[in-house]
C-alpha cells in the first residue's frame, strides 16, 4: 500500500511477516488524535519484539484533512510517529480497503469511529478488536500483545 504523503509503497507482507500487528484507523482532526502519542509509546515499547503498528488515516468519519500533506504533518511532525502510516483510505462499508474488510469479517466489528484498534497474532489466526476509547497503553491491549508475542503458534 502507498505510504502516507509519498510515492513509496509499504510492503505489508514484509512489514507483518511473523509479527504481531496492530492495525488502527486514524484521523488528524478527531478528539482521539492525541492517541498518536500513546500509539508511538506502544510502538517504541514493543518494536524490538516482533511487533508493528500500521496506521491507516481515514476520512470515513469526516475528521481527516483533505490533503495528505496536512495529515502527514500531524502524524510525523506534531506527534513524532515512526510506525508505518498508509495513504488515506476508507475503513468502513463497501468502500473499506481489503485489510479493514478482512478485520471486520474476522471480528464482526467494523470501526465505529477513528482510532479503532485490531491486534492480529503473528500467525494471523487470532484477532482482537478494541474500540476507540481504549487507549493504546491500556493494560487490556498490552496483555493481548504480550499473549500473542508469547504464543507458541
Q: How is this structure best described in words?
A:
By secondary structure, the protein is of the alpha+beta class. It has a single domain (12-149), classed as Glutaredoxin (3-Layer(aba) Sandwich). The chain has helices at 12-16, 35-46, 68-78, 98-107, 139-149, and strands at 20-26, 51-57, 117-120, 127-130. Strands 2-1-3-4 form a four-stranded mixed sheet, sandwiched between helices.
Give a short synopsis of this structure.
The protein is an alpha+beta fold. The chain contains 5 helices and 4 strands. Keywords: Oxidoreductase, Peroxidase.
Features:
single chain; alpha+beta; Glutaredoxin; 5 helices; peroxidase activity
* Portion in beta strands: 5-15%
Low-pLDDT segments? none
Radius of gyration: 14 Å
Morphology call = globular
> Main β-sheet, in a few words?
4 strands, mixed
How many DSSP-defined strands?
4
Widest beta sheet: strand line-up: 2-1-3-4
Tell me the distance between the termini.
27 Å
The CATH level-2 architecture is identified as 3-Layer(aba) Sandwich
Total number of distinct structural domains: 1
Amino acid at each position: 500500500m502507498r505510504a502516507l504523503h509519498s510515492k513509496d509503497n509499504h510492503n505489508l507482507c514484509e512489514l507483518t511477516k511473523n509479527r504481531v500487528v496492530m492495525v488502527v484507523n486514524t484521523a488528524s482532526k478527531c478528539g482521539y488524535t492525541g492517541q498518536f502519542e500513546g500509539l508511538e509509546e506502544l510502538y517504541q515499547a514493543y518494536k524490538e519484539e516482533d511487533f508493528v503498528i500500521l496506521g491507516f488515516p481515514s476520512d470515513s468519519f469526516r475528521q481527516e484533512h483533505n490533503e495528505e500533506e496536512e495529515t502527514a504533518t500531524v502524524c510525523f511532525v506534531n506527534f513524532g510517529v515512526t510506525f508505518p502510516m498508509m495513504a488515506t483510505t476508507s475503513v468502513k462499508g463497501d468502500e473499506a480497503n481489503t485489510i479493514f474488510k478482512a478485520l471486520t469479517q474476522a471480528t464482526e466489528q467494523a470501526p465505529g469511529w477513528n482510532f479503532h484498534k485490531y491486534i492480529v497474532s503473528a500467525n494471523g489466526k487470532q484477532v482482537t478488536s478494541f474500540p476507540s476509547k481504549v487507549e493504546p497503553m491500556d493494560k487490556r491491549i498490552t496483555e493481548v500483545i504480550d499473549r500473542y508475542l508469547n504464543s507458541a503458534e
